[in-house]
Amino acid sequence: xxxxxxxxxxLMIALxxxxxxxxxxxxxxxxxxxxxxxxxSESFDLTEQTKLMASDRTFISNGMRYTNxxxxxxxxxxxxNVIKKANPGATRIATVEDIMVxxxxxxxxxxxYRVVNTTSxxxxxxxxxxxxxxxxxxxxxxxxKIKGDWKIVHTHLSPTK
Length: 161
What we know:
The chain is α+β, with helices and mostly antiparallel strands. Helix content is 41%, strand content 40%.
């Protein structure tokens, strides 16, 4: 009887570990998808990007720390509006590389490289501006699983080059 109980116990442990690894793999895939959506929404309209964030997200970039996500997004949107007015035909395309994800329960820490490319309008190029301006960043995000969805609660972007 002892051997049977011991065998059942070992089987339960093995199944628990197997299930946990599957959940972690699914979570990592879901987290990578959130980061890709974040990067893909790096345009001058940040409406879609805002949906990926918790309302109390902290944002650190260019030496500044913003703890009010609503105001942080308003500041970024205001800056984007200035760029669009100064350069009406500009477009922005971002890419992400080398996403690393570490999951611990309902918390994930990620890091990645991001490149943001902003193209100039024809008029701006004729006026002497370069056709494209690119900046390279190293990013870190912390995500919490909130009501079943992964939400960005912290973003830190630093210049890479």
